[in-house]
Amino acid sequence: MAFKTKTFSAKIAQNPAIHFKTLTKRHFPDVMPHQKEILELYAEQHENSSDVALQLPTGSGKTLVGLLIADWRRSKLGDRVVYLCPTKQLVRQTVLQARDQYGIDVVDLSGRKSDFAPADRADYKTGAKVAVSTYSGLFNTNPFFDDANLIIVDDAHAAENYIAKMWSLEIKRSTVLHESLSTFLASYIDAQAFSRMTGDWNGPADAMWVEKLPTPQVDQIAPELAAIIDSHATRDEPDLYYTWSILREHLDACHIYLGANEILIRPLIPPTSTHTPFNNANQRIFMSATLGSGGDLERLSGRRKIDRLPAPEGFQTAGVGRRFFIFPTLSLTSEETDALRLGMQEVAGRSVILTPSTTQANQHCTLVNEHLKGFQVFTSDDIEDDKKPFTSTERAVAILANRYDGIDFPGNECRLLCVDDLPKAMNAQERFVMSKMGAAALYNDRVQTRVFQAMGRCTRALQDRSAVVVTGNELVDFLTDNRKWQYFPPELQAELKFGVDQSKEVTMEEIAENFEMFIENNTDWASADNMIRSAISDFDQREFPAMNELEVVVKQEIIYQEALWHQDYAGCLSACRTILGSLNHPQLRGYRALWHYLAGSAAHRLSASSGDAQFVSALEHYRQAKSAAPSVSWLNKLARHTPSTVNDDNLGEDEEVLIQIEAIERLFLTLGTATHHKFEKSVAGILSGLSDAKTFEASQVELGTLLGFRTGNDESDAAPDPWWLGDQVGIIFEDHAGGEASSIFSATKARQASSHPKWVKKKLSGTQEMNILPVIVTPCTKAKSGADPVLDDVYYWRLEDFVNWATHATNVLRELKGTFPGEGDLAWRAEAGRRLEAEQMTMQSILDRLPIASRAMEIVP
C-alpha cells in the first residue's frame, strides 16, 4: 500500500544550510563550509531585507546557495519564487543541477507563457516548486510572474542590458523607422552628424561616433517624434511596439542617443520601481561572482539600497583555474594572427570564439570553413538550449557574437578561448557618457567585470585551464595596459604579465610551440604555471578611485529617475543638487558635468518665463556642465545664454578643435594603443606617398584623416583634388605635386581651384553651410597674369613646405598618441587641444599660416 501522508507535522529548518540536509535526493552530504557561512548569515540578518546581494566567486557553488534560499523560503513561508537566469541555456543548466545534483524540485518556465504546461503553472502558483526562467520572463509588459514573493537574479553583473532592454527602444540603421527619424532630425542636428547617422562614414573610427539630442530640444520636438514612431511601432513590429507602449507617455524621462548604427531612446537608469511584478516582491536577491562597487548594482537594477553579503573570508581572492594569455598582435601582423589562430584551433580540436558583432562572427566562420577542413561551426543559436552538440564534437568551433557571458565550457569541454575584441561600452548611452562626457570612471568597475567574465568562459573551477587568445585593438589595449593592472585581482595580474612577456618580440612559430606545450600539459608548461603562481604574491589589488563618492550618490540617482518618470521636476532638481554636492573627485569631472546638465534640464522645465529664477538656474547649470565637459558642443549652445555677469573663459573654446580632438581620439583607439605598429605603418605610408606625385593625393587624404578631419577625393571629371573638412570650416585642395619649381601656374588651374568650393557644396552633403576654402599645393612660385584675379580667393601652400609640415604634424601626433591614456580623458583632451593650436594643426590655424596666392606668387605676363 502507499505510505500515508501527514503522519508527522513538517518541521521547518532553521536556515537554508540545514534545509539542504532534508532533501533526500541530494547527491552531496552537506553544503561546503563557505556556503554554510553565507546561508546562515542570510537567515540571521537578511531574511526580511527588501534587496540583498550575495557575492560568491566562480566555482564556489553560487547556484546551490541561491536555490537553497529559494526552496527554504518556499517551504517556510509559502513564497512563490522565480529564479532568473540571463539565457535559456542557463535555465536548462540550472534546472538540471537542481534536480539531478541538489534534489530540489523546480520547474522550467522559460519561453512563451502560452507554452507552459498547466501542471508547471500550478506548481509555481501554489508555491509547490521554484520556477526558473530568464530575465525576459519577468521584464516584459505582461509577465506570467506578476505575483512573485521572492525574485532571485542570478549573474547580476550581466543584468543591466537584460533589465534595461524593457525600457530601451533600439532603432537600427537599416530600418524604415530609422530612415524616417533621421530625415526628421536632419534639420535639428549638424550635417556631419546626419551623415554619420545615415552611414556616410569616413573610415572605421566613425563607427564609434555617438551623440545625444539635448533635452530642451527633445521637449520641443517630442510630439513630432512620437507621431513618427507611432506610425512604425505597430503590433506587426512587436519589439518596437511593446517597448514604445512603455516609453510613449514618458518621453520626457528618456534620452535620445544617435549612433553610427542605431538610435537609442531610454531613461538614464531603468525605472524598475514602476514595474509592479519586480517592485512588489517581498525580496529581491542579486547573486554574482563580482557585484561591483560604487553603487553599480543599484544603478543597473534601479534599486535605491541593496544590502551586501560579501564572499566569506578567503574566497574573495580564490582562483578559478589557470589562463594562459596570448596577445599575437603585439608581435604579428593581422594576417599572421589569423594563421596562428587557425593553427591553434587545429591543435586544440574544440575552440570558442567570442566576437562583438555578427559581421565579425561571419568573418571567422568564413576563415574556419575555408581553412579548417572537417571542422563543424556552431553559433549561439545552435547551443542556446543545449551545448552538448558542440562539446561532443571533437573538431568544432563555437563562434558566438555579442555573447560574453551565459555559456560556460569548463574542464575538457574547451581549452582554447579566442576573444576578438570586446567593446567597453555595450550601448549608445554608455558610449556617450564615457566618450563625450568624459565620465569613464562611472563604468570602470562594470567594464572590468565584463572583460573578466569574457576571459573566464573556459575556467570555472580551480582545476580548469584555458589558453585565451586576445585580439582586437580595444581589448588588447585594455588588458596589456599595466597602468590598469593595479585594479585587477593579483592572480590575473600575474597571468597578464606572463602572457604579455611571452607575446612580445616573438615569431608565430614560437607562440604556436608554447601553445602546444600548454595543450600537452607537459613539464615545460608546469614550469610556466609555477612561474605564474610564484609571482602572484608580488601583486596587490587596489580599488578604483572615486568609488566611495559614486556609492554615496547612487540612492539620489534612483530618486532622480523615479521623480523624472512621474514628471516631478522639482524633485529631480533637488536630487541633482544633492548629487552634485558629493561629486568632488577629479576623475568624476565628466560625471559632474552630466549631473549639471541634468539639473539644468530640470530647472529649465520648471521655468515659467525667460529670465525667471529657474531659467537663470538652468543656464548656470549648463555653464557648469560645459566648463567640465567641453567636448559636448551643444552644451556650448545652451551655455551661451548665460548672463554676461558670469565670467567663463571656457565658453569661447573652439568647437572645431574639440570635434577634431574627438576624431583623433577615435582614430587612436581604432589603431590601438598597446603597440604603435599600425600608426607607424600609416605614417610611413603617408610620408612616402607625399614624395611621389602619383601617390600624393591618396597620402594627402590619409594625412587629413590622421589629423581628425573628414576627408575624401573624387576622380570624376572636373572634380577637385582631396578635401579636408572640419565641423564648419573646410579645405579643398588643387594639387600640382608633379610640377616644377620653374614652371608657371596657369590661369586654368587657378580658375579650377577657385571654383572647387562650389563643387563641394553641390556634391557633398552637409557642406552647404560650411566655409570651404580653396588651397593650391604647388612647387610653383610664379603664376600667369590671367590667374591673378581668381587667386585673390585662393590660399597658397608651397609643396616643400606642405611636406615638411606633414612630417612635423605626424611627429606631434606620435607624441600625443604616446601620452594618450584612453577614451574620454578630459585632461588629455585639453592638452591635445593646446598642442594642436600651438603647432598650427587645427583647421583655422592651418589657414591662418597660409598666404593668399595672389600675394605669395609672382605674377608674370
TrEMBL record:
UniProt keyword terms in alphabetical order: ATP-binding, Helicase, Hydrolase, Nucleotide-binding
Cell division in keyword set: no
Residues in the signal sequence: none
Keyword check for Lyase: no
Domain of life, source organism: Bacteria
Domain spans labelled Helicase ATP-binding: 43-309
InterPro entries associated with the record: ATP-dep_Helicase_C (IPR006555), DEAD/DEAH_box_helicase_dom (IPR011545), Helicase_ATP-bd (IPR014001), P-loop_NTPase (IPR027417)
One GO BP annotation of this record: nucleobase-containing compound metabolic process
GO molecular function term, any single one: nucleic acid binding
Pfam families with a match to the protein in the record: DEAD, Helicase_C_2
Protein name: Helicase
Organism from which the protein derives: Vreelandella sulfidaeris
